[in-house]
Specification:
GO terms for molecular function: phosphatase activity. By secondary structure, this protein is of the alpha/beta class. The protein is built from six helices and six strands, in the order E-H-E-H-E-H-H-H-E-H-E-E. The longest helix has 18 residues.
């Protein structure tokens, strides 16, 4: 028996010039809502039995659009939430550029930590813990989880036995689909960063 888990990044929002983190009120734009609808249409062929989401608005909106297409009600999972970037939340990227802590975060993600925020090791621990709970809940099911780029990257790195420094070697685009098969004590990657253009 194996669980098939679809890790879905939320669709696009309009806050491209600042680090949103867990800020409230970051909603999908018109393009993002269209992306979410297309993602839901693609998932109709996957026969999902359950749909889970990060509690942040952009994920809940993405999950709602998918759920509407699949007649599923999304369930909120707090451990799927965005990385806590602490004091950097809401700051513009151009203001962060050149800050030593920011430079270290982007160069040594496996060792650095946002001021007052989470390390990637902590993100990995919580998302892997959640994935294992979902696997136990759906031991032979097909399920989806709407989350965030760095959280999905942490899960993929852990699944493949890679250090978190490998996160920069692959992309997780808005409204993308990454799939894995999971069984007790193991799993494998089935698909990575598929967007609508991949279908």
């Amino acid at each position: 028996m194996a669980t098939t888990l679809f890790l879905l990044r939320h669709a696009a929002h309009g806050e491209l010039h600042r680090l949103c983190g867990r800020l409230p009120g970051i909603a999908l734009g018109e393009a993002g809502l269209a992306q979410a609808g297309r993602l839901g249409a693609r998932l109709r062929r996957e026969a999902l039995e359950a749909l889970y989401s990060s509690p942040l608005q952009r994920c809940r909106q993405t999950a709602a659009a998918i759920g509407d297409r699949l007649a599923l009600t999304p369930e909120i999972e707090p451990d799927a939430t965005e990385i806590d970037v602490g004091a950097w939340s809401g700051q513009r990227f151009d203001a962060l550029a050149g800050e030593p802590g920011w430079e270290a975060w982007n160069a040594e993600r496996d060792r650095a930590r946002p001021p007052g925020g989470e390390s990637m090791a902590e993100v990995t621990a919580r998302i892997i813990g959640l994935i294992e709970r979902l696997r136990q809940r759906h031991p032979d099911g097909r399920i989806a989880l709407v989350s965030h780029a760095d959280v999905i990257k942490a899960a993929v790195c852990a699944l493949l036995g890679l250090g978190i420094a490998a996160h920069a070697r692959f992309e997780v685009a808005p409204a993308s689909l990454t799939a894995c098969a999971l069984w007790p004590g193991g799993g494998k990657l089935l698909r990575l960063n598929e967007t609508g253009e991949d279908a």
